[in-house]
Automatic annotation (TrEMBL):
<dbReference type="InterPro" id="IPR001296">
    <property type="entry name" value="Glyco_trans_1"/>
</dbReference>
<dbReference type="InterPro" id="IPR028098">
    <property type="entry name" value="Glyco_trans_4-like_N"/>
</dbReference>
<feature type="domain" description="Glycosyltransferase subfamily 4-like N-terminal">
    <location>
        <begin position="45"/>
        <end position="203"/>
    </location>
</feature>
<dbReference type="GO" id="GO:1901137">
    <property type="term" value="P:carbohydrate derivative biosynthetic process"/>
</dbReference>
<dbReference type="Pfam" id="PF00534">
    <property type="entry name" value="Glycos_transf_1"/>
</dbReference>
<protein>
    <submittedName>
        <fullName>Glycosyl transferase</fullName>
    </submittedName>
</protein>
<dbReference type="GO" id="GO:0016757">
    <property type="term" value="F:glycosyltransferase activity"/>
</dbReference>
<keyword id="KW-0808">Transferase</keyword>
<dbReference type="Pfam" id="PF13439">
    <property type="entry name" value="Glyco_transf_4"/>
</dbReference>
<dbReference type="InterPro" id="IPR050194">
    <property type="entry name" value="Glycosyltransferase_grp1"/>
</dbReference>
<feature type="domain" description="Glycosyl transferase family 1">
    <location>
        <begin position="214"/>
        <end position="381"/>
    </location>
</feature>
<keyword id="KW-0328">Glycosyltransferase</keyword>
Amino acid sequence: MTDRPVTDGPVTDAAGIEAAVTDRPLTDGGRPVRVLWLAKGLGLGGAERLLLNCARHVDRERFEVEVAYVLPWKDALAPDLEKAGIPVHLLTGAPGRRGRDPLWPLRLRSLMAQRRYGLVHTHMPVPAVAARMLLRGPLSVPLVHTEHNMWQRYRLPTRIANSWTYGRNAAVVAVSRAVAASVRPPRRVDPGQWLNVVHHGPDLGGAAGGAQARAEAREALGLPREGVVVGTVGNLTAKKDQRTLLDAFALMRRNHPEAALVLIGSGPLEERLRRHASSLGLDGTAVFAGSRPDVPALLPALDVFTLSSRQEGLPVALMEAMASGLPSVVTRVGGMPEIVDQGVEGLLVQPGDAEALSVALGRLVGGPALRARMSAAARERARRFDAEGAQRRIEAVYEQVLAGRRSTGVTA
C-alpha cells in the first residue's frame, strides 16, 4: 500500500485544519487539483473495476487523484491502482483483515486534513453518507457522487440517509439513464443542472481477441477448444439470478447439447447454485470458474455473453463483453436496454423468464451468422462508451463544480 499515514483519531487542531484547507490547490493555481475517490472496497466488482478503468485515464495535468477505501478484505484492485500511479489509502486496519472498524470516519477526517483535497468523489452509499456528514466547516470541500445502482435496490435506512444528506453533493453522476430516473434530487436543485448521466465503458486498450487469445482463455477456464460457450460474469447473488440462467440453459441444451456454460464470479449462493446445476444434469457442462481478476482476458473464450439479472445499474461486465465483440442476451432491467438494442447488439428478455431466456440463447448458439453480425455491432457500440471518454466527461463535471457552478448536465 502507498505509504501515507492516516491518524488513528479525530483532528483536534482547528487552526491547522483551517490553514490546510486555505492552502488547497485550486484550478487556477497552476497545480493539479488533488481529488479523493472514496469507495467502500476495492474488490473485483463492476463498480470497483470502473474505478480502475477511469484511473488509467486521469488527466494528470489537471487532476491528482488518490483513492481511499473502507473494507480491508476487499483490496484485490489496490495493487493495480498503485501500478496506474494512484496512491491508495486504507481507512481501516490492515489489508486483508476481516471485520469492521467504526473509527474509519475519523481517519477520513484526518486524511482530509493531511492531504488537502480540492474535491471528494464518493462511490457507494455508506462512505458517501459519511463524507457528506463529516466534511463540513473547515474541512468542507465540493462533493461529487457516482450513483451505481437504482435507489429502489437500497434498504430503507440507506434510502433515508441518502435523502437526508444528498443535497450536500455539488453534482451527481449516474451510470445510466435508468439509474438517474431512480434518484430523488433535493428540492432546492434543478435536476437538469445537477444530475449527469455518464455511461462508464471498459478500457478498450485491454480488449483481447484472436485465435490465440481464445485458446488461452478456454484453457484457463478448463473449457474444450471446440463448441459454443455461453458465459456470464457477476457475483452469485439473488439479484443476478443465475438460477434462472441455469434453468434456461438446461432447456436450451435439449436442442443444442454441444453447448457449454461458464459462470465467472463467486458469492453467497454458489453452493446452492452448484447443487441446482447438478439437479439439472449440468455436471461437467456448467463450469463455476470463481472470482477472477482477469475477466477481460477470459472473455475471448465465450461465444455468447448473458446476464439474467433482476436488478442492474449499468454492468461493467456487459460493457467489457461488448468491447470484446460478444453478442449478448440480457434482461430488460436497469441501464442494459440503453446500450443493447433489440436484435442489433444482442437480445433482450424479461427478468425471471427462463423459457424466454432459453429461446434467445438458442437463437445465438444455433446461429453463427447472427452471432457474427451482432458481434460487429457490439464492438462498434462499445467504442462510444470507453473508459477514457467517460473519465473526460467526469472531469468536465469536476471543472464545473470547482468553478463554483452546479454541473450542467453532461450526458453520454
